């Protein structure tokens, strides 16, 4: 049995896992990473935890996925707002603690690669992964390889402009895909509508406990038949259909995989998404693309990192 | 000296050229292809012309660029509206006439490849070519190779949705990039504005000879200072900036090259385009992308085909 080691480094914790050759987590641990940790200290803590998990086992490679702008070739974290890091040579720092190669990549790339290797048919060579979480991210696999672009910044589907006069995004622009399909904006929109008296079964909940309004609740109410909640999901699906339609035109993938909390609305999003996608795209590429909601896999970031 | 042979097969003529190793046309000829030619007949005529140009010279490969939906792997023209062809096994037909390999690809891909090989710095690995002609097309070079996608349909940037309620496109959808940046739609928009009494130096020309209103005239009037004409180009540049911004987010290319008649408006488009692009995209990818108007090269289709 051969093993791989993955580190998924976010702004709250670093997940570390020993992964077997079938992509299953054998052992895992976490290291806290909140409060803008000193890079050298966090790197040492991660390395120590890795060696504890390894327990003498030999590995060929350590893969690290980091939330931020990564220089893949040099293994440098250019900027990570969540970690408060700038120009951190993470690869070099970790390399000193291991007798094997260390690969540092963006966390969305790592997750996309994990999905590609564990949830997508082997015949697929070109895939878009879209993460619909708090924000919206993505990763591309082209010709069977993770595509990183000129500076390792590829795959940022969440900031494609859908309407330049739309809602203000955290990035400073307006109308990014994330402002339609990211959880924060979705919940904000729903609360605004409810505050303006929108008729919905959510109205009662909004008046008593507005903080309990989440995407999960919104999908529950939609499934119970609330037409407003259904409309909200239909809007998300429609805008995703337009965005993915553009990507189908440009890079003609065989597979699109949606993941993250928002994607768990499944059919509520997928039905309108496919309707828009079929309406907008050409026949040949649309006939050959499969749009799929990923199986829930909370460890995909660390599994993907281990498979880098 | 080694030679290559290219065929650029459009709905009016097939351009055929013998190209040297530096990508220069040595000899060329055309074969008429209008009026929906019988595939076998046109293939034979092209092959005969090729042999006449070759005059006994040996070549390793014949490259063919065809306007239409091409199955690159099998060398089949799935659909070419301009030629009136459906499921034509062009590679097989031509292969019989040559003792070398025949490559059949989409004409936009061929042109993009030609630009990449002749007008782009060698260090560039990821490039988007956008052809702003009668319509709007494109081609992608990723990791130093022409990227064709799952069914050879990649690179159709002209049909990205910019506004789903926009102008009706020839493809049947509304608000495609082509309806903002393609010559037919651009001229139509200008004439509509002038018919509605838009103040402009073009008004006099519109009243006496409306058929002389072309993108070239529009750029001449803009350069003379007509504020309406300047505004039209600014709009084209702005929408292109939004579309290319989305592609920078997703593909993170080092180079974007604009070609075709509309691109010859140069600064009139490029200045507003870059302004929008810089406003919309993240710092790292935008710092590393060069946006460039291609040198005029009327034979790029056939040169690119020869280099496939």
Which helices and strands appear, and what pairs or packs with what?
The structure is a homodimer of 308-residue chains.
Chain A: E1 3-9, E2 13-20, E3 25-32, H1 39-54, E4 59-66, E5 69-71, E6 76-80, E7 85-88, H2 90-95, E8 101-106, H3 107-119, E9 127-132, E10 136-142, E11 145-147, H4 178-181, H5 183-195, H6 202-208, H7 215-224, H8 227-251, E12 255-259, H9 267-280, H10 283-287, E13 290-293, H11 300-307
Parallel strand pairs in A: 1-4, 4-8, 9-12, 12-13
Antiparallel strand pairs in A: 1-2, 2-3, 5-6, 6-7, 9-10, 10-11
Helix pairs in contact in A: 3-11, 7-8, 8-9
Short synopsis of the structure:
Two copies of one chain form a homodimer. By secondary structure, chain A is of the alpha/beta class.
Overall pLDDT metric of chain A:
94
CATH topology of one domain in chain A: Nucleotidyltransferase, domain 5
Low-confidence stretches of chain A: none
Major sheet strand order of chain A: 3-2-1-4-8
- Counted by DSSP, the helix tally of chain A is 11
Residue fraction in strands of chain A: 15-25%
Q: Can you name the CATH architecture of one domain in chain A?
A: 2-Layer Sandwich
**What is the helical fraction of chain A, as a range of percent?**
25-40%
Distance between the ends of chain A = 18 Å
* Structural class determined from secondary elements of chain A: alpha/beta
CATH class of one domain in chain A: Alpha Beta
Provide the descriptors you would attach to this structure in a database record.
Nucleotidyltransferase, domain 5, globular, 308 residues, alpha/beta, homodimer, 11 helices, 5-stranded mixed sheet
């Amino acid at each position: 049995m051969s093993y791989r080691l993955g580190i998924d480094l976010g702004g709250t914790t670093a997940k570390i896992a020993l992964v077997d050759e079938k992509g299953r987590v054998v052992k895992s641990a976490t290291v806290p990473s909140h409060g803008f940790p000193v890079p050298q200290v966090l790197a040492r803590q991660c390395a120590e935890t890795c060696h504890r998990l390894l327990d003498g086992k030999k590995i060929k490679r350590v893969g690290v996925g980091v939330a931020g702008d990564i220089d893949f070739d040099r293994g440098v974290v250019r900027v990570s707002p969540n970690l408060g890091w700038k120009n951190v040579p993470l690869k070099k720092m970790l390399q000193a603690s291991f007798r094997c190669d260390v690969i540092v990549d963006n966390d969305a790339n790592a997750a996309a690669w994990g999905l590609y290797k564990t949830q997508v048919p082997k015949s697929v060579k070109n895939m878009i992964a879209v993460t619909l979480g708090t924000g919206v991210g993505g990763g591309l696999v082209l010709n069977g390889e993770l595509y990183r672009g000129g500076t390792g910044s590829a795959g940022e589907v969440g900031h494609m402009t859908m309407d330049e006069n739309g809602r203000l995004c955290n990035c400073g622009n307006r109308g990014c895909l994330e402002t339609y399909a990211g959880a924060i904006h979705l919940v904000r929109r729903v609360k605004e509508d409810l505050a303006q008296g929108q008729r919905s079964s959510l109205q009662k909940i909004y008046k008593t406990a507005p903080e309990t309004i989440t995407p999960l609740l919104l999908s529950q109410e939609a499934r119970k038949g609330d037409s407003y909640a259904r409309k909200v999901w239909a809007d998300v699906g429609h805008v995703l259909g337009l965005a993915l339609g553009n990507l189908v035109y440009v890079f003609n993938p065989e597979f699109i995989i949606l993941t993250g909390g928002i994607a768990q609305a499944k059919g509520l999003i997928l039905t309108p998404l496919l309707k828009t996608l079929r309406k907008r795209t050409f026949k040949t590429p649309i006939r050959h693309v499969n749009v799929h909601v990923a199986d829930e896999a909370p460890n995909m970031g660390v599994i993907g990192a281990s498979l880098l």
